[in-house]
């Protein structure tokens, strides 16, 4: 058995067989088509594997992207398609691949990993549930309350792409997408492994937002896996979207930073369910992350306290200090929940409560 090591170009077929077997009942080519950024020959350095007698038997892969969290530039590793053949499971192969992923990603200045799963494998490495987010589920009647007649939906047109990019980049927390990410999604029309409808929202014919949606095979609801644009426009088209998909319910994920949209929903007296972002998040280097987030922190507590803030990691404990205030966490996972927000956790006091949580990301088209 050889590993952990990076995938070699000639082994891509063997890796595809592994992930198609584990996730797609062996349907050949599905995973590579769904995740072209991950299973790309330009991404071999980020695909870690074990190989046994010429066969790839275990895999932990990632894409690396930049992102903006409230205007602060960070580097994110998106980990997905983690798989080991059944007969090789329980030998710590995935655990060792994840450990090496953390080392390699940290060495290439990645600040945290977003992992599209939640299990012991990730929790043991320090991953946590984050994001003070909400799930909004509307019936047709409720959607009617949020409807403004001037907004319309129509299929995406190639000329709409600059508008889509512009409204996506207005999100408080967003990936800084290379054109390739958009092109891959638009070519495959897949989002989060599902065939999706890509629709532009228009006002008097001008594009002011978009939705990427599908009908859930689990419960028949219309799920909007990514959207962007004016809040009123997005809320307004949820009813028409249900009509288009012929469903009785629509679901969208609302990021905790979307204050205006949350306010509009509250005014319509519709309840939202508190949820976290999907998957888990693993911070690779707390001091470096805080350094990157210092502009956001300064925006909440002022330049003096922000420049005084420091974080130390000792014996697995994480300690934040800002002037005379200090807050201690028993583990990196606890500290991660504090930094990025968690509905079950308090927000600290004073400057800490103003500075944290920082905005957290939603995968959308960047899901792996
Ligand atoms: C998840 C998967 C990749 C794990 O692969 P693996 O090579 O067997 O992983 P490991 O041997 O490192 O760990 C397997 C199990 O051993 C046990 N284990 C390993 N190290 C352990 C430790 N130090 N302490 C306690 N338990 C441990 C755990 O039960 C662990 O599973 P967990 O994640 O449920 O906690 C494999 O089961 C798989 O392919 N599953 C199907 C696809 C899938 O679900 N992928 C993950 C998507 S989120």
CATH topology of the largest domain: Aminopeptidase
Q: Indicate the low-confidence ranges by residue numbers.
A: none
Instruction: Tell me, briefly, the overall form.
Output: globular
Number of domains: 3
Give helix % range: 25-40%
The beta-strand count equals 19
User: Tally the helices: what do you get?
Assistant: 14
Bound molecules: coenzyme A
Name of the CATH homologous superfamily of the largest domain: Gcn5-related N-acetyltransferase (GNAT)
Distance between the termini: 27 Å
CATH architecture of the largest domain: 3-Layer(aba) Sandwich
The gist of it:
With 368 residues, the protein is an alpha+beta fold. It is built from 14 helices and 19 strands.
Architecture blueprint of SSEs:
Layout: E1 2-6, H1 12-23, H2 30-34, E2 47-52, E3 55-69, E4 72-84, H3 93-107, E5 112-115, H4 120-123, E6 133-139, H5 140-145, E7 151-155, H6 161-168, E8 173-176, H7 179-188, E9 190-191, E10 194-195, E11 197-203, E12 206-215, E13 222-229, H8 231-236, H9 238-245, E14 249-254, H10 259-267, E15 273-275, E16 280-283, H11 286-301, H12 303-308, E17 310-314, E18 317-322, E19 325-329, H13 332-340, H14 350-355
Parallel strand pairs: 4-5, 13-14
Antiparallel strand pairs: 1-2, 2-3, 3-4, 3-8, 5-16, 6-14, 6-15, 7-11, 9-10, 11-12, 12-13, 17-18, 18-19
The structure holds coenzyme A.
Coenzyme A is lined by residues 22, 58, 82-84, 89-95, 117, 119-121, 124.
């Amino acid at each position: 058995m050889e590993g952990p090591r990076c995938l070699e170009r000639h082994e891509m077929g063997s890796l595809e067989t592994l992930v198609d077997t584990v996730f797609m009942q062996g349907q050949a080519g599905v995973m590579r088509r769904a995740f072209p950024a991950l299973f790309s020959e330009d991404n071999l350095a980020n695909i870690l594997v074990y190989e046994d007698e010429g066969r790839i038997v275990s895999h932990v892969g990632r894409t690396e992207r930049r992102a903006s969290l409230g205007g602060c530039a960070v580097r994110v590793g998106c980990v997905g398609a983690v798989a080991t053949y059944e007969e090789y499971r329980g030998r710590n192969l995935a655990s060792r691949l994840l450990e090496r992923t953390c080392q390699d990603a940290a060495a290439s200045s990645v600040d945290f990993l977003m992992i599209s799963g939640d299990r012991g494998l990730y929790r043991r490495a320090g991953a946590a549930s984050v994001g003070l987010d909400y799930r909004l589920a509307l019936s047709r009647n409720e959607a009617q309350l949020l409807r403004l007649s001037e907004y319309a939906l129509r299929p995406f047109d190639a000329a709409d792409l600059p508008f889509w990019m512009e409204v996506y980049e207005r999100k408080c927390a967003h990936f800084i997408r290379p054109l390739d990410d958009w092109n891959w999604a638009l070519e495959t029309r897949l989002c989060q492994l599902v065939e999706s409808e890509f629709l532009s929202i228009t006002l008097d014919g001008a594009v002011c937002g978009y939705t990427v949606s599908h009908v859930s095979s689990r419960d028949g609801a219309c799920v909007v896996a990514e959207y962007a644009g004016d809040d009123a426009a997005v809320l307004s088209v949820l009813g028409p979207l249900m009509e288009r998909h012929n469903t009785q319910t629509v679901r969208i994920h609302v990021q905790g930073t979307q204050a205006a949209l949350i306010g509009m929903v509250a005014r319509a007296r519709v309840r939202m369910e508190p949820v976290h972002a999907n998957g888990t998040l693993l911070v690779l280097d707390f001091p470096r992350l805080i350094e990157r987030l210092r502009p956001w922190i300064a925006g909440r507590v002022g330049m003096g306290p922000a420049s005084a803030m420091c974080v130390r990691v000792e014996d697995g404990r994480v300690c934040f200090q800002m002037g005379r205030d200090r807050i201690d966490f028993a583990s990196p996972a606890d500290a991660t929940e504090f930094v990025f927000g968690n509905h079950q956790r308090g927000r600290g006091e004073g400057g800490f409560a103003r500075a944290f949580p920082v905005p957290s990301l939603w995968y959308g088209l960047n899901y792996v």
